[in-house]
């Protein structure tokens, strides 16, 4: 969960916010026939050893034989407001600016911003469409559009991302590190951060109180 997976385009969202220092982790060489998880949610099991991912819910933006990339959607970035971010990036805030929740997206490249949003907004090559009616844009253009009221219907911004090298996510799934469920608008954009982990488990019909911390199954 510490692999660099995303190349950097022009006009990338760069912020001066230090959140978590992350060391790169060696990836596993194990490769399985795990289904493509693009557009799915990963739900951290209770015995997740890394505190950065304690009760984390991660939206998978891309998954292939080359690895995977996702954004944590339930860990708000401390002391970072959207209005302050716009000011830092010299983007004027208009009368129709929609407030955007800012989260810690993961330990890789925490100085970069990634906007996860509904697919009603598209910016050509600057937008990566994801399964399930969601998309991700990582250029300043989307923030400028949000500031003028022309952005997506629903969105959140992740600082940094979570990356896996080839076979690493598959290995963690085999070891019961994560549960997988479908992503919904409500979980991504509607629920308060502290309720998303429980809400994601309920999509699977799992009672958090009955979840085994070691078995990986309900």
Give a brief description.
18% of the residues lie in helices and 27% in strands.
Q: What distinguishing features does this structure have?
A:
5 helices, 27% strand, 218 residues, UPF0301 protein OA238_c37660, AlgH-like, globular, VC0467-like, 10 strands, 18% helix, alpha+beta, disordered C terminus, ten-stranded mixed β-sheet
Descriptive notes:
The protein contains five helices and ten strands. It is α+β, with helices and mostly antiparallel strands and 218 residues long. The protein has a single domain, classed as VC0467-like. Strands 1, 2, 3, 4, 5, 6, 7, 8, 9 and 10 form a ten-stranded mixed beta sheet that branches. The protein is globular, with a radius of gyration of 17 Å. Residues 16-33 and 213-218 have low confidence and may be disordered.
Q: Mind sketching the topology for me?
A:
Elements: E1 13-14, E2 40-44, E3 57-64, E4 67-72, H1 82-88, E5 101-104, E6 108-118, E7 127-130, E8 134-137, H2 140-147, E9 155-164, H3 168-174, E10 178-182, H4 185-190, H5 193-203
Parallel strand pairs: 5-9
Antiparallel strand pairs: 1-6, 2-3, 2-10, 3-4, 4-9, 6-8, 6-9, 7-8
């Amino acid at each position: 969960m510490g692999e660099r997976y995303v190349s950097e385009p022009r006009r990338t969202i760069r912020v001066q916010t230090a959140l978590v220092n992350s060391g790169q982790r060696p990836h596993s060489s194990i490769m399985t026939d795990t289904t493509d998880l693009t557009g799915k949610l990963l739900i951290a099991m209770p015995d997740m050893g890394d505190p950065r991912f304690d009760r984390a819910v991660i939206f998978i933006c891309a998954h292939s034989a080359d690895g995977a990339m996702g954004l944590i959607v339930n860990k708000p970035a401390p002391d970072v407001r959207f209005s302050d971010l716009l000011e830092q990036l010299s983007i004027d805030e208009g009368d129709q600016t929609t407030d955007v929740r800012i989260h810690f997206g993961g330990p890789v490249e925490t100085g970069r911003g990634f906007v996860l949003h509904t697919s009603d907004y598209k910016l050509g090559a600057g937008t990566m469409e994801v399964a399930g009616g969601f998309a991700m844009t990582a250029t300043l253009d989307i923030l400028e559009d949000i500031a003028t009221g022309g952005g997506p219907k629903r969105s959140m911004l992740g600082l940094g991302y979570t990356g896996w090298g080839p076979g690493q996510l598959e290995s963690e799934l085999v070891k019961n590190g994560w549960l997988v469920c479908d992503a919904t608008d409500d979980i991504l954009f509607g629920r308060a951060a502290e309720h998303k982990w429980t809400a994601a488990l309920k999509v699977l019909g799992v009672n958090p109180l009955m979840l085994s911390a070691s078995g990986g199954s309900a």
